[in-house]
Design a protein that fits this description.
This protein is an alpha/beta fold. It contains 14 helices and 11 strands. The chain has an 8-stranded parallel beta barrel, surrounded by 7 helices. The chain has 2 domains: 229 residues, TIM Barrel (Alpha-Beta Barrel), CATH 3.20.20.70; 69 residues, no CATH class. The longest helix is centred in the C-terminal third of the chain and has 20 residues. Helix 8 packs across helix 14. The protein binds flavin mononucleotide.
C-alpha cells in the first residue's frame, strides 16, 4: 500500500490519524504511529507548555519519526506554538484554518514536510504556491470546522487532484476501508481520518463523547455556526439551538454570543452531551465500537482488501 507520499512520510500505511482538539494528544498519536499510520498531535487545544510536554512524550518513543503536529493557524499565540514545534525538532507539520504562506518559510527553513488542509481548489492552488509539500482536501462531511463552500469529498478530491501537482490526502467522511479504496480511486495518496480515531481507547476525549459517536446514525450531525466558522456537530440542545437561531436570521455577533467560551472543551473533553460542542462527522454513523487505534488501522486494512476483492469479482449479468 505504499504511495510516493507514504515513502516521503516514512509510514507503513497511507493512513493519517487526524490532529484533533481535545482528542489527539501524544497517547493517540503514538498508538496510531505504532500501528503504521501517521499520528498527529492536535495543538489546537494546547497552550505552548502543554504542547511541548506532549511533543517530548511522543519524541521519547521509538515511533517519533512518524508523529507530526496539526496547528490551526487561527490561534492567537500561533507564533509561540510554532516556536515550540521547531525547538522540539518536529518535522511533519499539518496546518489548517489560515493562510499557510505566512508561516511556510519558517517550516521549510527547518526542513519540515508541510501539509495544509483545504476545502476547495482555489485554496489548494494557494497552498501549493506557498510551498506546501502536500494538501489535505477535506469534504464537508468532516467532523469539526469546515470550509464555507460545502463541497463533498467525492467531488472535491478529483478536482483538487486535477488542479495540483503535489500529493493529495483525502479527508471528510472516511471511516472504513471501502471508503479508503474509493479515495484512492479518486486520486488521493492517503486518507486523513478524524471521527473514527476520536472514538478510540487512546483518544483523550471523554467517554461520553466517544459513546455519542458510537450512538450516532447517518443523520445525527449538522453543519452550523456558519456566520462564524462552519462546524459539524452532533445534534444536541446546543447544536439545534444554533440551527434555530440561524433559521431566525441570527447575526455573526449573535452566533458568537450563543457559542460562548470553551464549548468544544465542554463537549469533547468534559462530556457534556447536551450543552457542549460534539464535533464529529457524518461518518459517525459507521462507527459501531470503541476500538484501540491499532484495531482501527487493522480493520481499515482488511476492509480495504475485502472491498478491492469485491470490486474485482463484480459481474454484470445480461
Ligand atoms: C473532535 C474533532 C476535533 C478536530 N480538531 C481539529 C483541529 O484542531 N485542527 C484541524 O485541522 N482539524 C480538526 N478536526 C478535523 C480533522 O482533523 C479531520 O480532518 C476530520 O475529522 C476528517 O473528517 P472525519 O471526521 O469525517 O474523519 C477535528 C475533527 C474532530 C472530529
Amino acid at each position: 500500500m505504499q504511495t510516493p507520499l507514504t515513502e516521503e512520510l516514512g509510514i507503513r500505511y497511507p493512513i493519517i490519524q487526524a490532529g484533533m482538539v481535545w482528542t489527539s494528544g501524544w497517547k493517540l498519536a503514538v498508538a496510531s504511529a505504532r500501528a503504521g499510520a501517521l499520528g498527529l498531535i492536535g495543538a489546537g487545544s494546547m497552550k505552548p507548555d502543554l504542547l511541548r510536554e506532549h511533543l517530548r512524550k511522543a519524541k521519547a518513543t521509538e515511533v517519533s519519526a512518524t508523529i507530526g503536529v496539526n496547528i490551526p493557524l487561527i490561534r492567537g499565540d500561533v507564533n509561540e506554538l510554532i516556536r515550540v514545534i521547531l525547538e522540539e525538532g518536529i518535522k511533519i507539520i499539518f496546518t489548517s484554518a489560515g493562510d499557510p504562506k505566512v508561516h511556510a518559510q519558517k517550516f521549510k527553513d527547518a526542513g519540515c514536510f508541510l501539509v495544509h488542509v483545504v476545502a476547495n481548489v482555489k485554496h489548494a492552488l494557494k497552498a501549493e504556491a506557498a510551498g506546501c509539500d502536500a494538501v489535505v482536501a477535506e469534504g464537508f462531511e468532516a467532523g469539526g470546522h469546515n470550509g464555507v463552500d460545502e463541497i463533498t469529498t467525492l467531488c472535491l478530491i478529483p478536482q483538487v487532484v486535477d488542479a495540483v501537482k503535489i500529493p493529495v490526502i483525502a479527508a471528510g467522511g472516511i471511516a472504513d476501508g471501502r471508503q479508503m479504496l474509493a479515495a484512492f480511486a479518486l486520486g488521493a495518496q492517503a486518507v486523513q481520518i478524524g471521527t473514527r480515531f476520536a472514538a478510540t481507547i487512546e483518544s483523550s476525549s471523554h467517554s461520553n463523547y466517544k459513546q455519542a459517536i458510537v450512538d450516532a446514525d447517518d443523520n445525527s450531525t449538522v453543519l452550523t455556526l456558519k456566520k462564524i466558522a462552519p462546524v459539524r456537530l452532533k445534534k444536541n440542545i446546543f447544536a439545534l439551538g444554533a440551527m434555530n437561531a440561524a433559521a431566525h436570521g441570527a447575526t455573526k455577533e449573535e452566533e458568537i454570543e450563543l457559542l460562548g467560551k470553551k464549548r468544544e472543551m465542554r463537549g469533547i473533553f468534559e462530556g457534556d452531551l447536551e450543552n457542549g460542542e460534539l464535533e464529529m462527522g457524518q461518518s459517525s454513523g459507521l462507527v459501531k465500537e470503541i476500538l484501540s487505534a491499532e484495531d482501527v488501522v487493522k480493520r481499515l486494512l482488511s476492509e480495504y482488501q475485502q472491498a478491492k476483492e469485491k470490486i474485482d469479482t463484480l459481474r454484470i449479468e445480461n
